[in-house]
Amino acid sequence: MKGIILIGFMGSGKSTIGKLLAQKTGMEHIDFDDLLVQEIGMSVQEFFDEYGEAAFRREETSLLKRFLDHEQVISTGGGIVLRPENRALLKQMAPVIYLHTEPETFISRIKNDQKNVRPLILSKTPEEIQDVFTPRIPFYEESASLVIATSERTPEEIVQEILEKI
Ligand code: S3P
């Protein structure tokens, strides 16, 4: 089986679903944020502070190029679709699954997640978070080969649907 890529906004469940998909398919799971943190030796927050968002986006592009012919389940960072170059790369990497999640769900998950500090939405109000998300919607849709609605469904149900549809 070819690898699977998961895209979607922060808090849409890319890491949880990615791990479960990997378990069910026997594939390896790679989380781009975790891999970057491991390779650059600092947290995402520290990297943003030190080098800025543009540099972080360039790192994401090199990861996509490196994994163009991948055979793993890959959970991407929520902003991977921002660069046109990345969207073009993602189109060559199908199946690319957009985990579509309602704002109430991802906003409450993000706010309750002590482990991952997300520099782009740190101390933003729910309305401001929505403003980060809205312009990205067409980019997720354009990059995905499959859209899966995740709200009010268990990870098992979501993974089942993905496996039936790819
Ligand atoms: C980002 C999402 C984060 C991380 C970084 C930027 C974004 O990943 O890559 O903080 O711009 O949406 P998650 O989607 O895994 O939180």
UniProtKB/TrEMBL annotation:
Gene Ontology cellular component list: cytosol
UniProt keyword ATP-binding, yes or no: yes
Cofactor: binding comment: Binds 1 Mg(2+) ion per subunit.
Gene Ontology biological process: amino acid biosynthetic process; aromatic amino acid family biosynthetic process; chorismate biosynthetic process
Binding site for Mg(2+): S15
Amino acids binding ATP: G11, S12, G13, K14, S15, T16, R118
InterPro entries found in the cross-reference section: P-loop_NTPase, Shikimate/glucono_kinase, Shikimate_kinase/TSH1, Shikimate_kinase_CS
Reaction catalysed by this enzyme: shikimate + ATP = 3-phosphoshikimate + ADP + H(+)
Keywords tagged on the record: Amino-acid biosynthesis, Aromatic amino acid biosynthesis, ATP-binding, Cytoplasm, Kinase, Magnesium, Metal-binding, Nucleotide-binding, Transferase
PROSITE patterns in alphabetical order: SHIKIMATE_KINASE
Enzyme class, UniProt record, top EC level: transferase
CDD domains: SK (cd00464)
Cofactor section: Mg(2+)
PANTHER family from the UniProt entry: SHIKIMATE KINASE (PTHR21087), SHIKIMATE KINASE 1, CHLOROPLASTIC (PTHR21087:SF16)
Family: Belongs to the shikimate kinase family.
Quaternary state and interactors: Monomer.
Function: Catalyzes the specific phosphorylation of the 3-hydroxyl group of shikimic acid using ATP as a cosubstrate.
Protein's name in the database: Shikimate kinase
Source organism of this protein record: Enterococcus termitis
